[in-house]
Amino acid sequence: MKKISIKPLAAAFAVCALALFNQAAVAQDATLKIDEPWVRATVPNQHATGVFMRLTSSAAGRLVAVESDAAKHVEVHEMAMQDNVMKMRQVPGIDLPAGQAVELKPGGYHVMLIDLARQITPGDHIALTLVVEDAKQQQRRVPVDAIARPLNASAAPAADHAHKK
Ligand SMILES: [Cu+2]
User: Fold this and answer.
1) What pLDDT, on the 0 to 100 scale, is given for residue 164?
2) How many domains, the chain?
3) Residue span of the signal peptide, if any (predicted)?
4) Res 11: pLDDT
5) 156 inside domain
6) Ligand 1 centre from 76 Cα, in Å?
7) Could you tell me if residue 159 is inside a domain?
8) Considering the domain boundaries, does residue 129 fall inside one?
9) Alpha carbon 58 to chain centroid distance?
10) Per residue in 63-98, pLDDT tens?
């Protein structure tokens, strides 16, 4: 089955073309609406922080990954009560039901930037790329520009982000 080996290559080309297109088109995606993307500013030597936004997909989809040059590792996390303690854990993705707003917010789902390249101060712009999968498991990349808000932007988990490796 030699044909199969061609497919990933074709997909890679498609993704590259999309990425280029997206960069030129200034953060627009026909299906996915992104509201108020923001990142929590950091203090010196803080190595991790969270990114938040509201996602509304007109067609059923799933956020499967996030990429950014701002940190060595970018993970999708969820905060949840576990034995009466708020804990966070990495999740493989976040479902985006058609037409339903999904909040990434302090205390819930968030994107975690781990091993930050530098300190983030309020007003900074952090570029991220959302990798979204549609119902046919086709992936596309959606650029996001998250603006840094002050450390105390809302009552939320901040300093106690313990990440086990
Ligand atoms: Cu986290």
Assistant:
1) 44
2) 1
3) 1-27
4) 53
5) no
6) 7
7) no
8) yes
9) 18
10) 999 999 999 999 999 998 888 998 999 999 999 999
Under 8 Å between Cβ of 32 and 131: no
- Whole-number pLDDT of residue 81: 86
What is the C-alpha to C-alpha distance for residues 116 and 45, in angstroms, rounded to an integer? Answer: 9
Q: State in Å: Cα 48 to ligand 1 middle.
A: 8
Rounded to the nearest angstrom, the distance between the alpha carbon of 156 and the centre of ligand 1 is 11
C-alpha of residue 109 to centroid of ligand 1, in Å: 8
The answer to the question of residue 128 being in a domain is yes
C-alpha 14 – ligand 1 centre gap (Å): 31
Instruction: Tell me what pLDDT residue 80 has.
Output: 87
For the CA atoms of 101, 70, 135, 3, what is the dihedral angle to 10 degrees? 170
Q: Cα of 112 to ligand 1 centre, how many Å? A: 5
Q: Domain holding 69: CATH number? A: 2.60.40.1890
Q: How far is the CA of 22 from the centre of ligand 1 (A)?
A: 27
Low-confidence ranges of the chain (pLDDT < 70): 1-27, 155-165
Ligand 1: centre distance to CA 1 (Å): 42
Identify the domain containing residue 145 by its residue range: 3-149
